[in-house]
Design brief:
423 residues; alpha/beta; Rossmann fold; 2 domains; 7-stranded mixed sheet; 3-stranded antiparallel sheet; 13 helices; globular
C-alpha cells in the first residue's frame, strides 16, 4: 500500500496550481494554452504527440504551435476519426505523412490501438492532447489508456495537456461490468463519469487499472524517484485554468463529425444507445444524436431522412423517411431536457411504440449477448432486459447503485478541479 500512497502523492505534487473560475467569468484556458508550464519539459527532446484536429492553441494547431516554438516533433499518433478528424465513426485509418509538416502520422484506430517499440524509437517524451466529451463509449479515453500502456511499457514520460469536459458537471449511468469490456468501454466507470481526460488518466494509474506490466513500472518508478524534480515524472498533467466541474464549456471545435454542436454533445450519453438498435440515431442529418427514429414508427411523429455525409457514409435507413423525435433546441433548452442525468425515457418510449419489438435491439451474429453493441454501450445485459420487461426509469436507476456511488468515491481522489455542486 505504501507505493500506492507515494505514487498518488507524486501525482499531486506534479500538478501545477490553477485558478478557480472567477465570479466575473474569467476565460477557461485549456492546458495546451499554458505553454509556460510545459515548454521547458519539451526543450531538447524528441516528442511523440497523440493529437487530432481539436489539439489547438487558440486558432492554431498544437503541432504547428510547438514546431514554431522550436519543439522537435518526430511522430504523430491519431485516434478514431483520424488526425484531421474527418473519418466516420469506426472507420479504419491507415498511416500517412502529414502534408503540412512532413511528420509521419501513425493511426491508432486501424490495425493497432497502441504504439509499438519501433514507433517510439525516435522519441524521448510522449504528449497527449485531445478534446474528450466525458462519455464512456466515446473512444478517446480508450485511446488514452492504450497510449498510457505504451508509454509505461517503453518507459517514456507521458505529458497530458488537460481540456475541460463539456459533460463534466454530473456523474450517471450504469457502471460497466467486466464481461462487456470493449474499446467502447474498457473500465468499470459509469456512462458519464464527470472527469477531465487528465483526471481520468490519474485514476487509471492510481487505481492500478492498467496492465500488470504498466502497474509494475509505476511502482518501480515511485520507489526510484522519491527525490524527484518537476522535470522527472512518469505521468504529468498540465491542468486547465479557471475551470471547475460546474463550468458549462462550449467546445470551440467539433470533437468528431457526428458531434457538430454542443447540443449533440449534451444528448450523446442518452441517445447513443440507439446505435445498438434498429433506429436511426440521427447520423446522416445535420442534427446527429438530436434526432432519432425509424421508418416503421407512427407517421405523426417528427419526420427526417438520413443521407450520406462526411461523418456517416452509410447511415441507417439512408434515403428513407424516418419518424421519431427531434430533441434539438438552444444549448440551454437541451441542458434542461438532460437535467444532469442520463434520460432513458426516449429509449423507453421508442421501444413502446415500435411495432416489431423482437427486432428493436440489434442481435449479435454470434448469439453471445456480451457481443451485442447495445450491451457494450450499456456495459451490461440488464438494461436491455429492463426495457423489454417494461421497468420504470426509476426502477432501472435504482439498479445502478451501489456501483455508481462506489465509483463516485474513487473519482473524488483524482479531481484536479472544484467539484460540481450536485456531486
Amino acid at each position: 500500500m505504501k507505493w500506492i500512497l507515494f505514487f498518488t502523492t507524486l501525482l499531486i505534487n506534479f500538478r501545477e496550481p490553477f485558478s478557480q473560475q472567477s465570479a466575473s467569468g474569467s476565460a477557461i484556458r485549456p492546458g495546451a494554452e499554458r505553454m509556460e508550464l510545459y515548454l521547458p519539459l519539451l526543450k531538447g527532446k524528441r516528442v511523440g504527440i497523440f493529437a487530432n484536429h481539436t489539439s489547438r492553441v487558440g486558432a492554431t494547431h498544437l503541432v504547428d504551435t510547438l514546431r514554431k516554438a522550436g519543439v522537435n516533433i518526430t511522430v504523430i499518433f491519431g485516434p478514431e476519426h483520424g488526425f484531421r478528424g474527418t473519418a466516420g465513426a469506426g472507420e479504419k485509418i491507415g498511416n500517412f505523412t502529414d502534408e503540412k509538416t512532413g511528420i509521419p502520422v501513425i493511426s491508432l484506430y486501424g490495425t493497432k490501438r497502441r504504439p509499438e517499440a519501433d514507433d517510439l524509437k525516435n522519441t524521448d517524451i510522449l504528449l497527449f492532447d485531445i478534446q474528450d466529451v466525458g462519455v464512456r463509449f466515446y473512444t478517446y479515453i480508450s485511446s488514452l489508456e492504450e497510449f498510457m500502456e505504451a508509454a509505461f511499457a517503453y518507459q517514456k514520460p507521458l505529458l497530458i495537456l488537460d481540456r475541460p469536459n463539456p459533460n463534466g458537471f454530473y456523474v450517471d449511468g450504469p457502471v460497466l461490468e467486466k464481461k462487456y469490456r470493449s474499446f467502447v468501454g474498457m473500465q468499470p466507470v459509469p456512462v458519464v463519469y464527470g472527469m477531465t481526460i487528465g483526471e481520468y488518466a490519474l485514476m487509471l494509474a492510481g487505481e492500478k487499472w492498467l496492465s500488470p506490466r504498466a502497474n509494475a513500472y509505476l511502482k518501480q518508478f515511485s520507489r526510484q524517484n522519491k527525490k524527484y524534480s518537476r522535470s522527472t515524472f512518469a505521468i504529468k498533467v498540465i491542468p486547465c485554468e479557471n475551470y471547475t466541474h460546474n463550468s458549462k464549456y462550449i467546445l470551440p471545435v467539433k470533437p468528431s463529425p457526428n458531434l457538430p454542436e454542443i447540443q449533440s454533445v449534451y444528448l450523446y450519453p442518452s441517445t447513443c444507445f440507439f446505435e445498438g438498435t434498429v433506429l436511426s440515431e440521427g447520423r446522416g442529418t445535420e442534427k446527429p444524436f438530436q434526432l432519432f427514429g425509424h421508418p416503421e414508427l407512427p407517421s405523426h411523429l417528427y419526420a427526417f431522412t438520413p443521407m450520406p455525409n462526411e461523418g456517416a457514409r452509410h447511415p441507417k435507413h439512408s434515403g428513407k423517411i424516418c419518424y421519431g423525435w427531434n430533441l434539438s433546441g438552444t444549448p440551454e433548452e437541451v441542458l434542461q431536457k438532460v437535467n444532469r442525468r442520463i434520460q432513458l425515457r426516449w429509449l423507453m418510449e421508442a421501444y413502446r411504440l415500435f411495432p416489431k419489438k423482437d427486432s428493436f435491439f440489434i442481435l449479435p451474429k454470434s448469439g453471445k449477448m456480451e457481443e451485442s453493441f447495445f450491451n457494450k454501450l450499456a456495459g451490461n445485459n440488464l438494461l436491455w432486459k429492463q426495457i423489454v420487461e417494461g421497468k420504470t426509469e426509476e426502477e432501472i436507476r435504482k439498479t445502478w447503485e451501489p456501483a455508481l456511488s462506489a465509483f463516485k468515491k474513487i473519482r473524488k481522489k483524482y479531481l484536479l478541479y472544484p467539484d460540481a455542486d450536485s456531486l
